[in-house]
Write a structure and sequence with these properties.
single chain; alpha/beta; Rossmann fold; 2 domains; 7-stranded mixed sheet; 9 strands
Length: 269
């Protein structure tokens, strides 16, 4: 347990070598990285942690907003004397990683992000507005479901309708479903801050380090549109890859292949 910004965060370190920090997404915890860690710990010092309010980490008075998540990531990197670190983020974790690179680029050596859910970026894309409205409707219904105590039902809808797509819940193991159920309330705090789903694109465009943006061919279309826009409009110098067999959570579904992509990219920088 490492105390940062007034809260105890549960951190784990495996392996030795250049530091690689893995940042998990919404309604999960660091256990979703376990199989990736086992693949990468032979090449890197791999650092994972439960974001505040998630898993075994404390929450303080609140799980906090996106700014607190970014501050926590920065503090974790400093606490382990890891700056500048190679930072990998998936989903909401990718959003946190992108914000850190925009605000404190000196802490980030390289950046690997998979499908950040920057849905409010789509406001500028008129053909995507019906998609955004539908996402907000679904999110509101899930929120009500969770608030009345139906955590399993809310977690299932979150996975099937927002995160992994139809059939996503069925594809998970019982242990993975339990992780989503245990952490679904944290997603309510994220959703309560609409500004979290966009970022300072001008500041991010000034990040000079190596960047890999990955996308799954089976992911929800709105997430794929976001990754396309981030690459073409903000980080055109980034390496951009689309893996047809992947979805929104390759660390859970294709950990060996995802780890190899990360390893190969960092080795090339």
């Amino acid at each position: 347990m490492v105390k940062v910004n007034g809260v105890d965060l549960c951190c784990e370190v495996a392996g030795s070598g250049p530091t690689l920090v893995l940042v998990h997404g919404s309604s999960v915890d660091q256990t979703t990285w376990e199989r990736v860690v086992s693949e990468l710990s032979g090449s890197f010092r791999v650092l994972t942690y439960d974001r505040r309010g998630h898993g075994r980490s404390g929450s303080g008075d609140t799980t906090g907003g996106i700014d607190q998540d970014v501050a926590d990531l920065a503090a974790v990197i400093r606490a382990f004397d890891a700056a500048p670190a190679n930072v990998v983020g998936s989903s909401f974790g990718a959003l946190i990683a992108l914000r850190l690179a925009a605000r404190q680029p000196e802490l980030v050596r390289s950046l690997v992000v998979h499908e950040p859910p920057l849905i409010f970026y789509l406001v500028e894309d008129l053909e995507q507005l019906p998609v955004l409205e539908e996402l907000l409707r679904i999110g509101g219904e899930i929120l009500e479901q969770v608030e009345r105590g139906d955590l399993p039902g809310g977690a299932k809808r979150f996975v099937d309708e927002l995160a992994l797509g139809s059939g996503g819940w069925k594809s998970l193991t019982d242990e993975q479903r339990d992780v989503f159920i245990a952490n679904i309330r944290c997603w309510l705090d994220e959703r309560a801050e609409p500004a979290a789903y966009d970022l300072d694109r001008r500041a991010l465009s000034r990040f000079a380090g190596p960047v890999l943006i990955s996308e799954g061919g089976r992911s929800p279309k709105h997430l794929k549109r976001v990754t396309e826009k981030i690459h073409s409009e903000v980080l055109p110098q980034a390496r951009y890859v689309v893996i047809d067999q992947w979805g929104h959570a390759p660390q859970m579904t294709h950990p060996v292949e995802y780890a190899e992509l990360i390893r190969e990219f960092i080795a090339s920088t």
